[in-house]
Design brief:
The chain is elongated, with a radius of gyration of 22 Å. The protein contains five helices and no strands.
């Protein structure tokens, strides 16, 4: 398809975001299930509800533009979701898994914030004020989710790092004993 105007690009980018959000609706329950931190589980569950609302808002924007949301598959979100699946398949300590899930979720949030920022700007340039307001609301929520993930990471990453220190200390002690016995 040849895109000949900013309006056509706007609709194509909205379709990409719509596909991304639909994929995320399927991925978030799996992430919530894999999380061990009650706060992280609750955060994923809350964001699932927000994401469903994001889908509804995009559908509202498409109605306002008299366009269909169908016809595009977001390959970037497919890749981000696939990376998240790979993380969940790894054998990790619970705190380390939660840290990895936060990293995967933040990559998703940053992708979405970039997308929503672009389409909101296009809406402004095209004089689509109501669309812009709707898209800004979603952009604000994506930013708030990213901030909450950062706050959770400040605790969870420390717990994961402390796990590392404990494992390293435990692994180092037997080695030292073995070496000291060998020297006797």
């Amino acid at each position: 398809m040849k895109i000949e105007s900013l309006r056509e690009l706007f609709v194509e980018e909205l379709k990409d975001l719509y596909s991304a959000e639909k994929q995320l609706v399927k991925a978030l329950p799996k992430m919530a299930k894999a999380a061990t931190s009650p706060k992280l589980k609750a955060g994923f569950t809350k964001h699932l509800e927000e994401t469903k609302e994001h889908v509804s808002r995009l559908e509202q924007v498409f109605e306002m533009l008299e366009a269909s949301p169908r016809g595009k598959h977001c390959k970037a979100m497919e890749g981000l979701v696939e990376e998240g699946k790979e993380v969940m398949e790894e054998d990790m300590e619970p705190d380390v898994m939660d840290a990895a899930l936060i990293a995967a979720a933040q990559r998703v949030e940053h992708y979405e914030m970039a997308g929503y920022g672009c389409v909101r700007t296009y809406a402004d340039l095209l004089g689509e004020t109501k669309c812009s307001q709707i898209l800004q609301k979603t952009l604000n929520e994506e930013g708030a989710t990213d901030k909450k993930l950062t706050e959770l990471a400040e605790t969870i990453n420390v717990d994961a790092e402390n796990m590392d220190d404990g494992e390293q200390a435990a692994a180092t002690k037997p080695r030292r004993r073995t070496l000291s016995r060998a020297g006797r």
